[in-house]
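Before going further, learn to read the protein records used in this course. The integers have meaning only within a learned vocabulary of local backbone shapes. To see the layout at work, look at the sequence and tokens printed below.
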Amino acid sequence: MTLRTRFVLVILGLMLLAQAMFGSAYYFLQKKAELAENYNRSMRSLRFAAAVCHEASLTGDWNPAKSHASLLREDLRIRYADCFDGNGAPLTGEAPGPAPDAPAPAGVWEISRSFGLNGGEAGRVRIGFDAAAVDAEIDANLARAVWDMARVASFTLLFGFLAAVMVARTLTRPIEAIAAAAKKVEEGDLGHRIPDGGGAEEVEALRRRFNAMTERLAETDRMKQSFVQSFTHDLKNPLSGIKACIASMHAGSFGEINDKQRRYLESSLEAAERLWDYIDDILSVMKLQTGGFPTRVEALDGREIARESAESFALKAKQCLVDLTRDMPDELPQVRADAQLLRRVFDNLISNALNFTPRGGKIVVRAEREREFVRFEIRDTGPGIPAKDLERVFESFHQVEKNKSKARRSGTGLGLAICRSIVRELGGRIWAQAPRAGGTRLFFTLPAA
């Protein structure tokens, strides 16, 4: 989950929490208000009924009181409404409710009030409400209030979501820029810098420190490259002389040699050749990293270069009892690449596969069209690469520890790093897979011509 998504979820979560708290408070306050309104309305009805009955007792005309009682009974919430004199006799006609001295029936909420009769006696007004009807009315009013609140909350959440996205984007954009810059540096682009974004003071301080750190790393890397380049270049001249001297002695230019001397000279020459390859690999990496390797990109037949590379290893594969084959379609398009660099990629990958594939194993060089690219694959039946090393095998000097003892010859750990630098220079990408069945699959893509 990205940081921006987390920011949005946190903001929305806080909004939902605030709405839940507000909604709960609103609901209880609204319910309290409905109960109070129902009570006040009922009491107003009771006071008015008492006033009507009092007025009727003074005038002696009970018809208005009877009419008012009948009107009250038409309300679905009211079960009964009557006036009684001090002896409990009904004054508004036959009372449909309980006797004056009887308790209120079940499910009825009753209220009563005394009023003065003509002659000084006290009468009483009783109104019985259907509790279920009252509750239903209150619930209906609350449901309307909740629905209105839900609609307002929906619009609030919608606008809150948009605001959260904008706020999260504003907060995370500088962090994403730093993360992208860190990835660039991780990939070897030490010249990458984070531009001034005019953000918060803390973010700007982090940006300045990051740029200062990468500047120091770049300076250290330049010093390292300069030292390694000079050192390896200075090594090649004396090493060239050593190789020539050993080769001359092996050829008998300085006199006859016996079999034991020949074996020692062959071993020394092989070690010198291996050292020469190491130095050449190091120089190649330095040139590729500094852009000092000349390239001539043109449309090439990738199948032909793969064929030439595979044939150059055919004899060695036969000696190692490894089956080296090619599987490439005839209609494969050409690729845009440098012939010398592409050949080096194939040589390194096939050599690496041959170095780790045991006797009786198999190496297959494949190719196929992949949209606007051509994808090449070198697959072997060697020991494979652990999942944790699939990315790191392309780093300079990195070697899989568990496979070192299985290699036919030790290496520098630069072959795949050189391949990655070349493939990136040519506009493609390279990666490795470790099938469950065993072995290793190395892929790289190049733009189709």
Summary: The mean pLDDT is 84. The first strand starts at residue 78 and ends at 84. The radius of gyration is 47 Å.
